[in-house]
Every structure is written in C-alpha cells, then in structure tokens.
Amino acid sequence: MKILQTVLESNRPKFNEYLKIHGSFVWLSDFEIPYHNAKFINQVFTISHALGIRQCVWGGDAFHLEAFSPFGGADHDADQEISEIDEYLPGFLEPFDKIWFFVGNHDQRLIHRLNDIGVMITNKTATRMLIAPETALEFKEKVTLSEYRYAKAGKNWLLEHPKNASTIPGRTAQQLSAKFHCHTLVGHTHNAGKTMFNGFYAIETGHCLDSERLAYNSTIHSTRPQMAQGAVLMWWDSTKQDYNPIDLTPQTINFYLSSIASNKTRKATKPDRPNRIRSKR
C-alpha cells in the first residue's frame, strides 16, 4: 500500500546526540571541585590504573560552582573558586587518555546565571570559561563534553545525572530502569546502592566529594539519608559482550587495593621457571 506523503517532516532538530561509550571505564560523579575527596579519588584512580583502565566518565557535578549558586548564604567569590579549579583539575586529567563528561545541575549553575541576564550560552562554552589556559589544551584533547545530562554505554546501559532524586536509596535508579528497560548507573542522589530490578542493574553510585566540607551538610542536620561515597569500575567482558559493574566504596576499596598489592608482590617474588631440556630418545 502506498503511504500518503501529505504531511511534511518537521525541520526542528532531534535531541539524540548523547555520548556513546564503549570499553572499560571508571565512573566518578558528584566530586564537585573544590569540595572533592582527594583521598578516595586517588584510591579509585590507583585501582583503575593498575587494571589498565584509561577511560573515565564524569557523571555530572564535576564542579560545585558555589559562586554561582542561587541559594542564599552562598560564598560568591568566583575568583577564589575558579583559582581552585585551576589548581585541582589537572590531577583529574592526568591518569586518563579519554574522559567523557556529561553535566549535572551544579555544572549548569554558571549558564543559568548568565541566562538570567539574557546571555545565552552552551554548557561547552561555559565550561571552557572555567578552564585555565595552562590546562585548556589537555582538557580539549582528553575531554568530550556533552550538552546532555546522560550518556549510554555498551548495548544496554544508561548513565544518568537525572532531574529527580528520591530520598529512598536505590529508588531513582530503579525508576529509570523501569522507564527505559535497561541497566542504570545514576549519580546526583548522593545515595549508594546496587539492586537488581526487573532483571536490570539499578545502581546509585554515591558521590566523590568530602561531605564534611559542605556547610549545608555539616552545620545542620536533616532527615535525608546520610550521604554515601562511591565510584564504579565498569569492566567490559568481551565474552558476554556486557559490563561487570564493580562498586568502590570506603567499605570495599581497601580490599581491592590490598588485592592489587598482593598480586604485584606475588609477581615480584615468583621465581623464574628453569628451562626444561628434553632428552632425545
């Protein structure tokens, strides 16, 4: 049957240019420079480096941008905060060959402030405004930055910094898995937990910041869940053509560090096998 062609195609753009990631990577989100937790992040980088992982995904809120906060009582010293970004950012770039960065709500604070005064700007341009000239070239070579707040990995993984966040740990990831029928890796909530939901992984990854440095968290209590620290190592299994997610938390990370150290020790102390000489018969 011939289909009528009376309705013209819309000339409006489709929003389907999200990041697509392949291969093993380590996931960090919500480290919010300059409120990051250097000790925990260095431990995560040590593990990923030892395993030969050279890709990192920044799952939103790489920068805190307190100076551009819409909330009352914020420290609006932009010069100080940007100078701190200059100091700390190179350490996040150095260990990796490739970094995938999709933005979170904190990363968008600058563009929202500029939008409020009529200046229209993209996330990419706003981020470049924050990067020191000495770091700009390395950042440009290594980092692929998205205008979206999500990415996809492999065939069936959705990586998210969503709009919503439930106070129930794991609930946001489960709802996204149910909505999109896929595995989910979710930042933004500052909760940590790995669940299986309708046959899919639904993982809330925690944060990589130092919560004791946040005044709103440390000077007044709320009924929200305690912030949970975490990162995820996404190991690509070429046999099953899918990822094995390995959660890294303060409770598990020392196990992985000691395992790597023990393996190196065994390799260093293992004697070489003598060559076997077979007699001719």
Q: In a nutshell, what does this entry contain?
A:
It is built from 8 helices and 12 strands.
Give an account of the 3D structure.
This protein is of the alpha/beta class and 281 residues long. 31% of the residues lie in helices and 21% in strands. It has 8 helices and 12 strands. Strand 6 (150-153) and strand 7 form a beta hairpin. Helix 1 crosses helix 8 and helix 2 (78-93) packs across helix 5 (133-142). The radius of gyration is 22 Å and the shape is globular.
Q: Count the strands?
A: 12
Mean of pLDDT: 93
Strand fraction band?
A: 15-25%
Order of strands, widest sheet? 1-6-7-8-10-9
Distinctive features:
six-stranded mixed sheet; globular; 31% helix; 8 helices; 281 residues
Per-chain topology:
Elements: E1 19-21, E2 25-28, H1 38-50, E3 55-59, H2 78-93, E4 98-102, H3 109-116, H4 123-130, H5 133-142, E5 143-146, E6 150-153, E7 157-160, H6 171-180, E8 183-186, E9 192-197, E10 200-205, H7 215-218, E11 231-237, E12 242-248, H8 253-269
Parallel strand pairs: 1-6, 2-3, 3-4, 4-5, 7-8, 8-10
Antiparallel strand pairs: 2-11, 6-7, 9-10, 11-12
